[in-house]
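user: can you give me the structure for this one chain? tokens are fine.
assistant: on it. calling the predictor now.
[tool input]
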Amino acid sequence: MALVQMQPRPASATPAHRTVADTMDTAGPQVCDDMTIEVALAVMTSARTEHLLVCDNDGLCTQLVTQAQLAAVRDSPAYTDRVQLRDILDNRGPFTSPASTIAEAQHAMRGRRPGALPVVDEQGSAPGVLALAH
């Protein structure tokens, strides 16, 4: 009888087709786009997070904003305490689907900031966030 030597699988090995749903973090704080910059920064500080998911009045995720983005707006000469998140958001997305592969999500984010990508389902809700390695 021949002995078979088994090699342990390295912990870093990942299946070729891991999906975003397999690795995403919970969504964290979600705020409405009518929130002011100051309040959004306070929410981030109290939640100890670097980003917020921004939703419209229908509860659909429209964008992810970072603490750095909001601080830059707050520090600009045109800033007032009445500036709302919707005033600084220029477009919808980018997003990824829970069914997308990690490779697809990383490809969609090439050359973009921030290092996190909202995961949005078919209904427009954000069940999570994918933190991307740079």
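assistant: here you go. Confidence is low (pLDDT under 50) at residues 1-13. The two ends are 49 Å apart (CA to CA).
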